[in-house]
Amino acid sequence: MKRNSRLSLALHTLAHMAGNPKQMRTSSDIAAHMGTNAVVVRRVLGRLREAGLLKSEKGHSGGWQLARAPEKITLADVYTGLEEQLIARNDLQEQPVCSVEHTLYFRIFGIMQDMEQTLIDKLASTTIAEISEAAGQVHPNE
Amino acid sequence: MKRNSRLSLALHTLAHMAGNPKQMRTSSDIAAHMGTNAVVVRRVLGRLREAGLLKSEKGHSGGWQLARAPEKITLADVYTGLEEQLIARNDLQEQPVCSVEHTLYFRIFGIMQDMEQTLIDKLASTTIAEISEAAGQVHPNE
DNA sequence: ATTCACGTAATACTTATCGTTACATTAGCA
DNA sequence: TGCTAATGTAACGATAAGTATTACGTGAAT
Questions:
Q1: Nucleotides of C under 7 A from a protein CB
Q2: Out of A65, A101, B81, B99, which could bridge B51 as a Cys pair, Cβ 3.0 to 4.6 Å?
Q3: What pLDDT shows up at residue A90?
Q4: pTM of the model
């Protein structure tokens, strides 16, 4: 078990979808490809649906699809859609009383905020369509 | 309990030490101030001793001290001394077979490596002496 | 010698994440 | 209308990382 594999799972799945946006994929099929469980897939992709990146349909012939063109979905969209906060997570406890800790808190907090934004900027420069193309489409149906 | 409080603990402790470098501090006293256990303190500070930032002495009147002037210890020294890898940790599994995953892996890996270096650069611009001064030395003996 | 401090192994505790099961809901299809 | 296949979610268990605690060995000062 890895810590925080949600982003990998999401990016990997959407990059595949970018290779064939029309195709409807079930959480079960996706889970098999990713080596995990269908419920886990639905949990992760559910967040991206709320973020407007994916559509899901219930019932027979239901499943998952991109909600918009893969050229218009960046890696940053996926990252922020998951509300990950990989860097600037607030385990920098509550407001400290000690003046040294207080000073450190704000210095580090500021740096982490900058870093978080830098990461998003870097991720924003690549779309899932580019990933799909770069991968060479070895499996055009996936 | 917080996840990865080692860096906070280390920075906080060293910033205090910067305010009065001559003073010898016991892991017990430090632990009391930080709200943790003496063994935890020794574990964390032990890494910084190996990194050459601290000296420790056993026996009566033993304890911990900075190994060099606080003006010559940056936040980056502390970070790298702990070998933290806050960002670029390798929970990006082994070499993937799937071409899409492979492509993603290298793209993300490259970004994370850049981020890690960026973080170190940012931390390197501040010394623990500066933190101590900015904190206003409310408690000159700590 | 005794005491005080570090060094470290072993173990338990806590928390986040992931995996699994179970069941309700919804939509197509015969 | 029932059956099947899919999502949506709650509940619970399993695992791993981090931290806390206990215990004991070692070294140095008094």
A1: 3-10, 14-22, 25-29
A2: B81
A3: 57
A4: 0.90
